[in-house]
TrEMBL record:
NCBIfam families: UDP-GALP_mutase. This is UDP-galactopyranose mutase. InterPro entries: UDP-GALP_mutase (IPR004379), UDP-GalPyranose_mutase_C (IPR015899). GO terms for cellular component: cytosol. Belongs to the UDP-galactopyranose/dTDP-fucopyranose mutase family. Residues 183-380 form the UDP-galactopyranose mutase C-terminal domain. PANTHER family: UDP-GALACTOPYRANOSE MUTASE. It comes from the Bacteria. Pfam families: GLF, NAD_binding_8. One of its GO terms (molecular function) is flavin adenine dinucleotide binding. Keywords: FAD, Flavoprotein, Isomerase. Its cofactor is FAD.
Length: 415
């Protein structure tokens, strides 16, 4: 049974409070009976689907049915109060950062912000060292007192030039040499992806810089802040519109024979939509163990990485660093990558890119469905990139008069 989400508490309430003034729940059956004709059915209530639902409703007066197979909105950014009353990210840490002012301007309609610059430590050789590697990392690891210029020379002397950079291993060894690669990157990457860095596309480790100054920030974007009252509150405000119906705990298979709509926007896995006709696109999944400890602070930063392959988890996150919540206890998550479970990360290998191209060719042949988001386009996107993709798609949908939408009809089951 689905639920309809409408009417939410003010975003000006403090972190840690969740109001109870949701309007009455409406089942999926009720929604399809009472408002049978939708302009859009959107599958997936994460960033891509929710931004498009808001824009189509508020910007173009379109009726939208938004569904998600999970029992909540916000996708993997979903946060909630745990049993101890600590605000946690259910699916691991989500840190918002961007250089795009238009994305900040858009999201600021639905949230206030708190300043937060993300810092990460890595447990290496019995020490907690800044990652990305910087001047302090090198000086602490090797017992040196180098300045910035000396650190540049130090890394240059250890780098092992790779003529043709193709893999993640090539990227790191070319920058910092094999010893630092082994200490900081190889084990973590093998745990994270279930593959050796030599088997992964160069894009995986190209995202992590190396610095010779003391900048310990994980990101350097111009805008680094967190939603003041959490991601879920931001999504609730985004979706609080009379033209949006929301059915939760509902998958596409549950509605495609009963819902009536003019166009489908699909944010789920593209291979699933096509019934895996070419085989499954590989994803890496995650498992989280959430715990609460009877102390106000557990670690000095939000995230500590564990590159050592003898340690089963990849990182520990302490959420109060991210949220700014004041609480006598603190909640953590231990993160365990896995091959099974919800799809999180498209695996960047050439054969997977080729398989996606086959599904993309199928998608291009259909005017009835538009694919968007990380799962719909089989690409790793940051949150701001997904918002940007959704806003760009809305502009195309709003301005595209050359492809009129068909009459709303009951969608037949696909064979």
């Amino acid at each position: 049974m689905g639920q309809h989400l409408r009417g939410h508490e003010s975003a000006n309430q403090p972190v840690g409070h969740r109001g109870a003034n949701l309007m009455p729940l409406i089942t999926l059956e009720s929604a399809t009976l009472e408002r049978a004709h939708y302009d859009y059915l959107i599958v997936g209530a994460g960033f891509a689907g929710s931004v498009l639902a808001e824009r189509l409703a508020a910007g173009s007066d379109k009726r939208v049915l938004l569904i998600d197979r999970r029992p909540h909105v916000a996708g993997n950014a979903y946060d909630h109060l745990d049993g101890a009353g600590v605000l946690v990210h259910q699916y691991g840490p989500h840190i918002f950062h961007t250089n795009a002012a238009r994305i900040v301007e858009y999201l600021s309609r639905f949230t206030e912000w708190r300043d937060y610059e993300h810092r990460v430590l890595a447990s290496v050789d019995g020490q907690l060292l800044p990652i990305p590697i910087n001047l302090d990392t090198l000086n602490s690891l090797y017992g040196l007192q180098m300045n910035e210029r000396e650190a540049e020379a130090f890394l240059a002397s250890r780098a092992e030039p790779v003529e043709a950079i193709r893999t993640s291993e090539d990227v790191v060894i070319n920058q910092v040499g094999r010893e630092l690669y082994e200490k900081f990157f190889r084990g973590y990457t093998r745990k994270q992806w279930g593959l050796d860095p030599s088997q992964l596309d160069k894009a995986v480790t190209a995202r992590v810089p190396t610095r010779t100054n003391s900048d310990s920030r994980y990101f350097t974007d111009a805008f680094q802040k967190m939603p003041l009252h959490g991601y879920t509150r931001m999504f609730e405000r985004m979706l609080d519109h009379p033209l949006i119906d929301i059915a939760l705990g509902v998958g596409f298979a549950d509605v495609r024979e009963v819902a009536q709509y003019r166009h489908l926007i699909y944010c789920g896995p593209i291979d699933e939509y096509f019934d895996y006709c070419y085989g499954r696109l590989p994803y890496r999944s995650l498992r989280f163990e959430h715990t609460t400890v009877d102390q106000a602070r557990f670690q000095s930063v939000a995230v500590v990485n564990y590159p050592d392959e003898t340690v089963p988890h990849t990182r520990i996150t302490e959420y109060k660093h991210l949220t700014g919540q004041q609480h006598a206890r603190t909640s953590l998550s231990h993160e365990f990558p896995s091959a099974e479970g919800d799809p999180y990360y498209p695996i960047p290998r050439p054969e997977n890119a080729e398989l996606y191209k086959r599904y993309k060719a199928l998608a291009d042949q259909s005017d009835e469905v538009t694919f968007v988001g990380r799962l719909g386009t089989y690409k790793y996107y940051n949150m701001d990139q997904v918002v940007g993709q959704a806003l760009a798609l809305y502009q195309r949908l709003a301005s595209d008069s050359s492809k009129p939408m068909t009459e709303a009809v009951e969608q037949p089951a696909r064979s």
